[in-house]
């Protein structure tokens, strides 16, 4: 599997509870925090739900 780097670029303030929990499940809790994860179907689906809050890079 490919690895991707996900960086939070926008705040979760005034977002739905579902989006907040998705960001937390991805490991993103603060602005400009980055995590590296395996790109599987579950992670890709979570990224699609919060793509307006994150930046994605291929590693």
Distance between the termini: 11 Å
User: What is the CATH superfamily?
Assistant: Ribosomal protein L30/L7
The CATH level-2 architecture is identified as 2-Layer Sandwich
- Any idea what the radius of gyration is? 11 Å
| Poorly predicted spans | none
CATH classification, class level: Alpha Beta
Query: What's the mean pLDDT score?
Result: 96
Describe this structure in words.
The protein has 59 residues and is of the alpha+beta class. The protein has two helices and three strands, in the order βαβαβ. The protein has helices spanning 17-26, 41-49, and strands at 3-8, 34-38, 54-58. The chain has a three-stranded antiparallel sheet, with no helix packed on it. It starts with a strand and ends with a strand.
Defining key terms:
59 residues; alpha+beta; Ribosomal Protein L30, Chain: A; three-stranded antiparallel sheet; 32% helix; Ribo_uL30_ferredoxin-like_sf; Ribosomal_uL30_bac-type; Large ribosomal subunit protein uL30; structural constituent of ribosome; ribonucleoprotein
């Amino acid at each position: 599997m490919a690895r991707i780097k996900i960086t939070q670029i926008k705040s979760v303030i005034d977002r739905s509870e579902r989006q907040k929990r998705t960001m937390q499940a991805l490991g993103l809790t603060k602005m400009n925090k980055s995590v590296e994860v395996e790109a599987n179907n579950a992670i890709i689906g979570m990224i699609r739900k919060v793509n307006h809050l994150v930046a994605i890079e291929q590693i």
